[in-house]
Amino acid sequence: MNFFYAALKRELLIAFRHRSDIINPLAFFLMVAVLFPLGVSPDPEFLSEVAAGVIWVSALLACLLSVDGIFRSDYEDGGLEQMLVSSESLWVMVTAKVLTHWLISGFFLTLISPLVAMMFFLPESAYFSLMASLLLGTPTLSLMGAIGAALTVGLRKGGVLISLLVLPLYIPVLIFGSGTVQAGAMGLPIQGYIALLAALLVFSLMLAPFAIVAALKISVRS
Amino acid sequence: MLEVKNLYCERDERVLFEHFALQINPAEVVQIIGQNGSGKTTLLRILCGLSDAYEGELLWKNQAIAEVSRDYYQSLLYVGHLSGVKGSLTAEENLQWMVQLDSSLNKCTIAEALKQVGLYGFEDVPCHSLSAGQQRRVGLARLYLSSAPLWILDEPFTALDKQGVSEKEALIAAHVAAGGTVILTTHHNLVIPNQTVRYIDLDKAA
Asked: How many domains does chain A have?
């Protein structure tokens, strides 16, 4: 447990030394949300109808954009090799890394999502379902994205490949996530959607770290 | 204590090792020599379990390394081509993390190790603003901290100045005198005081 805190502290320290890594996904998320009404239609009725989908798609893409680099610098400076020759568990380090990624992307996105929801004239009754769905959905995005990042970290041009690998895994999260918000906006019960998102999160929390560790080993050792 | 049996490795359809055997005993310095591209780094990576692209047996104290990997990694200090030093962290923060990763880095305090490698006064500077030689020194500070019996060092003297090299040579000599083992590659003329160096020539292995 101490080792987990040490790993988490290091990751957070590195993240806060690279402020652009924190600002990039947030700026991307906000930009898509701001530009969309300008490009399509500023009509409040239309916007409130598409709000759920647009907010979820931009959150998903912001996450995908930033997850690519999650292991990159450790691979390039040899830090990953040192983790592999360590007697400590790589599983713990990977979990700390993914948690940090989620904190600086998904968690912050969740916090600013009401602001974007306001710009899209989302009914206030749907704010809770939006934040709850993002809070449960974005960690799944980070976990699944990290599998793709670990598989492609050894390739020089992994950027396109990671999208191809990870997007199919993201689709259920997107469907249930935006479904939650739509149900919330119409005043329907959202428990079913929330339960599905939570199930996806538990499922990926259980299995993704093992897949990430295995993928990292393949990337370094091949 | 470390044994390689019947190693076969090819890379880009070129055979690097065939029927290659190596026996490493306690308290010796083994220098792997060979031309560029002869497989020095590949061999060291195989020994550290950082490469799967080989066939053959690796034994640590007569047991397969894969089976005793925890014990093996606790006894191993690996300093690779890449230093493992994070540019955005300071020298002290980097070493704190390395100590977390490797519990055998317990011989002295981090401050002591930094003083030994000549980085006293630089411990609060982010490593990306240190020179290449100084960054190398941050990684090599582990040699002062380590109580692991087996050191595998891949080109440890790159970017070091003459004084730095002779300090590290003295350190290797002390490690071997205390019963430790060092396997290294370098293009320097290695002078280890009071110790004989065993050479493994990879140009003859293929």
From this structure: 1
